[in-house]
Amino acid sequence: MIVAIIDGYTDEPAGLGVPPYLGIYPRYAYGAVKKARRDARVFYLTIDDLRAALEGERGVATKNKTLNFPRTREILERADVLVYIGGLHTPGKYLSAVPSQVEEVARFLRPFQGVKILGGPAFMGSAHAGGTRITSRELLLAQSVFDHIVYGDLEAFLHDYLVNPSDADPLRFRTYGELRDYALLGAEVVRQFPDFPDFVIAEIETQRGCPKAMGIGGCSFCTEPVRYRNVEDRPIEDVVAEVEALYTLGVRHFRVGRQSCIFSYMAKPDGRVPVPNPEALEKLFRGIRSVAPGLKTLHVDNANPAVIANYPEESVRIARTLIEYGTPGNVVAFGLESADPKVAKLNNLNATAEETYEAVRILNEVGAKRGPNGMPWLLPGINVIFGLPGETKKSYELTFQFFKRLLDDGLMVRRINIRQVVVFPGTPLWHMRDRVKTEKHKKLIQHYKYKIRHEIDLPMLRRIVPVGTILRDVRAEVLENGLTYGRQIGSYPLIVGMPKEMPLNRFYDVLIVGHGYRSITGVPVPINVNRESPRVLQYLPGIGKKTVVRVLAERPFGSKDEFFRVVGEEKRKTLGDVITLK
């Protein structure tokens, strides 16, 4: 039997599977197939493979890899089962991958004869932009192309279907007892991931469902409580075993990101705000480190700021655990969504503005120190959604003033994620969809996005990575118009634009020389001042076009002293350790 798993990439409130992230769905699906049919040949393909193959472009080069056209078509033609995994519920901007939609992959797969199965969050639809409503059109298209649409867990359905098709229930959810085998067997699919081994980061699940939703209901827009009605914590030993399996195969980058709140792992339910369990988190991350001692990245993702604000002592202990066992550049994403208390109440949001402010302050106290890779150890990120029911002009101003207060008080927020609301079936917002006013407030939304980007993001970035900072291990991913774009591997890494063409898929140390609104400019170091182009030299801190002319006239330099006599002795402090003459 031949099974083709097609990864259309996923992005959900509690999970990411867009390269370089390898999400949970392809791994678990692979493991379920292998458990059901040990003799099955399972091939992992990406939507980029399909785009290349089915457009008939041999050896098409994408932004970060070359794809093999003949192999992909042969697999699709011979496959007995074609499994498509997709679903984009929290759309963002991606550097080197473009997630698919059901319409696209349905068109690709229609001609092939294998049994077609749709899994992952795609059954609810996908959104590539905010301010949209998922329509029935794409769901009807899926029904016309796919033989089976899985509304429960794909891995549970696949296993049952391959053992006995008549027993397979597309609504069934697996237990964590079942998942253990799927996760361990499925780890080996990472070998087929295009970014393996050096650049893949594995998303690791610890919990499903939303603890807050169990107490007082979920946020109006969120699909997580729709998919998972109950909260279930994955056993520590199972998480550690999966990390060990991936680490043994060669994976060195991990994000414990598949949960709605890392601070609520194994927490005690208590209405709106569960009581954190620092001992469980310490045991979990100590266990991960013990089986993956040479890992290069260990980050997390979501957290409910209300938990941190209401249980500061326990939360500080958890934050220190994340620092002790994790790696710098870690980001905990807070779901503020709106600083307007009326909007927060109407949409049942996670935390108040005051709780979020307090959580930001606490994490800054614990995690703002800079680590060896050039980034602070642990900072908050904040998610904002525009277009929620109940918003007025005052709502946007309150949210802006919240960020202004953080900035004025000297606090740091690694990133501010601004999205327009997307309305998905099954969410409470679906029943309030007539009150979503993204079109009515379109100009206001554009104005405040611009205001936050220019007046908050820019000075915040300058605070987080000042000019002269060296970021270590920046992977070059994309070439565009003579520029190279790269980023570190981790949660919400900064995009670094380098003003020269660099060989891709290599790691560089980069001197930060400038700031944009959401990205930064850097120059790879060491910098050979005798050979480097004028274009790059003029980016060096304190060196402008006039000084570069003098450098070009005087070089080659025989010593660093000669160079600093030309550019100014005061530049030695910033540049002394990063320039070379050979």
Automatic annotation (TrEMBL):
InterPro entries from the UniProt entry: Elp3/MiaA/NifB-like_rSAM, rSAM, rSAM_horseshoe, rSAM_sf
Q: Which Pfam families does UniProt cross-reference here?
A: Radical_SAM
GO MF annotation: an example: iron-sulfur cluster binding
Ranges for domain Radical SAM core: 196-455
- Family annotation (PANTHER family): PTHR43324, RADICAL SAM CORE DOMAIN-CONTAINING PROTEIN
The protein, known as: Radical SAM protein
